[in-house]
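Notes to self after the Tuesday call (sharing in case useful).
The group wants a holo model before anyone commits to mutagenesis around the pocket. I volunteered. Ligand is pyridoxal-5'-phosphate. Logging inputs and output together so the record is complete.
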Amino acid sequence: MTKTELALHGGQPVRTQPWPSWPQWDETERAGLLAVLERGEWGGYDTAVTEFESAFAAQFCVTTVNGTTTLETALRALNIGPGDEVVVPPYTFIATAASVRTVGATPVFADVDLETWNLSTPAVEAAVSDRTKAVIPVHFGGLPVDFDSLLPLAQRHNLFVIEDAAHAHGSGWNGQPVGALGVAGSFSFQASKNLTAGEGGALLTNDPQLAERMWSIANCGRSPDGHGYEHPNLGTNLRLSGWQAAVLSAGLTRLDDQLQRRMSNARRLRGFLDEIDGLAPQRWDPRVDAHAHHIFLMRYDADSFAGLPRRAFISALRAENIPVGPLYPYPLYHQPPLVEPYSRITPCPNSELLCRQTVSISQNILLAEPHEMDDILQAILKVRQNIAALH
Ligand SMILES: Cc1ncc(COP(=O)(O)O)c(C=O)c1O
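Result:
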C-alpha cells in the first residue's frame, strides 16, 4: 500500500483521522433538557421556547416545528394562495418551492447565478408577471443574496421578499443579519443545519402585525391576548417544544465561534482552490459580512481534469476520506410535484449546469483544525496526479 497510489486502487488514503462529527453537544444541552424535564410543563410554549426566540434574533421571532412549515406559514400570513405566483430558484431543497404549491400558489422558477449559486436578480425580473406576489431567495450554502439589487426590484414590482435562510444562521449582508432583510426570514434547525435540535424552524420579521399572524397560524389560530379556546384565525399546530428550544439555546452559545472557524477554514480552502485549475469555489461579494458556510461549494470542470467525470472525481476523493458530494441531481422543476403546469419555468441554464458540476463539502468538515484543510488539498492533488489511472 503506497501513499501515492489512489485509495480507490488500494493505496493509503490521504486522511486517516475522523472528521468532526455533527451534531455537537455537551453539558449545556444536558442542563437545558433537564430544566425542561423538571419544570414539568411539557406542552404549550415552555419558557425555554420564548427564551430561545429572544436569544436567536433581535427581530420578532416565531418558532415552528421545521423550516418547511415556516415558509408555508409566512406565505399564508401574507395571504398568498391560489392565483398568485411566487418566484423561487430551482437549485435548492424542495421545500423552497413546494411550500408555494402547498398554499395553493404557483412556483415560478428563475435561474441562479453561476458563481454564487444564489437567485439572479435579472432572472427574477424576467420571471415576474402581473400575478407575482412574492419572491423566495435562498442564501445558498449560507452566502447572503445580493439584497442591494433584489430589494429595489421587489419594491418596483410590489413583491414580498421571504428569505429562505435555512443555510444561513449568522450570515450577514452589508451590516445587517440575514433573515431581517426581507418581510420575513425563514430558518431551519433540521439535523444537518449549523444550529440544530434535530428538527425545528423559526421565522423572523420586523413587522409586529405579520409576527402576530404567523404566531396565530402556528398556534391553532389563537390570538395572543385571547382565550385558549378562541380561534379567530384558521391555524394549525406547529409549536416548537421546550426540549427542542433548550437544545437550540445551548447550541446558540457556540454558534458564533463555529461561524468564525468555518469562515476562516473556508478562506484557507478557497486560497488553495484559487491555485487549482478546474475547481471554482463559490464567489464572495465584499458586502458579505458573514457567511455561515452550511455548505462549501465548488464547480468542477471535467475538461480541466482530463475529462474525468464528476462522479469518478467524487468517488476518488471519498476513498481518500474526503467526504464530498454532488448535491442536487437535477433542478426542482423535474420533481413530479413541481413540473409544469404545477409551476411556471423560465430558462435556467445555470441551474442545469450546477446540477452537473457542483461538488460540495458539509459544514462540520469546516470545524476541523485549520491545518486539516490541507488534507482536502492533498487529496485533490493526488487525484489529479493519478488521473490517468482513473480512466
Ligand atoms: C434551502 C432549504 N429550505 C428549506 C429547508 C427545509 O427545512 P426543514 O428540513 O427544517 O423542513 C431546507 C432543508 O433542509 C433547506 O435546505
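Two things stood out.
Residues 1-391 form a domain with the Aspartate Aminotransferase; domain 2 fold (CATH 3.40.640.10).
The pocket of pyridoxal-5'-phosphate is lined by residues 66-68, 92-93, 95-96, 138, 164, 166-167, 188, 190, 201 (CB under 6 Å).
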